[in-house]
Amino acid sequence: MCGRYASSREPSDLVAEFEIEAGNVRESVEELGENYNVAPTNQVVAVVERKNREQPDETIRKLTTVKWGLVPSWAKDTSIGSRLINARMETVAEKPAFKKAFATRRCILPADGYYEWYTAEEKVNGKPVKQPYFIHPPDGSILSMAGLYEIWRDKSVEDPDKDEAWLWTCTVLTTSSTDDLGRIHDRMPLLVERERYDAWLDPLSSDTDDLLELLVPAAPGRLEAYAVSKAVSSVKNNGPHLLDPLPPDGEDPQDSPTTLF
Questions:
Q1: Per-residue pLDDT reduced to its tens digit, 105-163
Q2: Contact at 8 Å (CB) between 232 and 5?
């Protein structure tokens, strides 16, 4: 699964990467700022493409913010969102919680990289030692994670024209990890390569087979992993220091880590 990631890009970098017109960046994106320990229920940056109401055959690409943890439009309340932070590629086109969003509401969730925990055989006080790793593109490029988004109507807000009447949420699509990363965890986020941005985001396209073909796991060597401090395990901790690799001697302020690579 993908349960934590880092997101620190300037909105201007994302506008350039995803070819978004400046007027289509929501103010909430600028307000969000850097987050080196993105966790479920957080507001996150998302790239979405919506039909143009004035020109139904055209679409508008936007940079916006959504809450991580998908709430289907048919949900009675928002509590289900905490259980839907990930959607498995193998079943996303059939599961009721994701089927409709997969057909028409796909997004890209930009990240610097994501965290995953390797469970070691050794134990401390009877519990397995879990060592966090940061997994990212070694060239520093943006990690474009495939996502879905939903829009849920909050009926406690009577006026549908108010922003608060609509809750925007998202989930990250995952697949089996490639061999090199599978040693850390058996699942990983699916990526959308740059040449496939348009096809993935297009809300006018809904052919399941075509959409599934757009999604790819990271090619061998596309991502690298290194051990980081266990400080990232607590959502109370944040800041660029969470991305610092553990020193060669493996000394972690939080604990003594297990070395995998």
A1: 999 999 999 999 998 777 777 788 889 999 999 999 999 999 999 999 999 999 999 98
A2: no
| The pair of three-digit structure tokens given for residue 37, joined into one six-digit string | 């320990």
Q: How many CB atoms lie within 10 A of CB 142?
A: 18
2, 107, 150, 170: which is the annotated catalytic residue?
A: 2
C-alpha–C-alpha distance, residues 129 and 16, integer Å: 41
Tokens of residue 237, six digits: 């901790």
Q: Which of 107, 116, 150, 170 is catalytic?
A: 116
pLDDT for the residue numbered 62:
97
CA proximity to 96, closest of 75, 82, 76: 75
> Counting every residue, how long is the chain?
261
62 token code pair? 């936007």
Residue 149 one-letter amino acid: Y
Measured distance CA(79)–CA(172) in Å, rounded: 17
Residues facing residue 51 across a β-bridge: 59
Give the bridge partners for 173, in sequence order: 87
**Two tokens, residue 184:** 């850390």
Nearest to 11 by CA among 61, 46, 38: 46
Structure confidence by residue, pLDDT tens digits, 166-206: 999 999 999 988 777 888 888 999 999 999 999 999 998 88
For the question of residue 116 being annotated catalytic, the response is yes
Q: What is the pTM of this model?
A: 0.92
CB atoms within 10 A of CB 203: 15
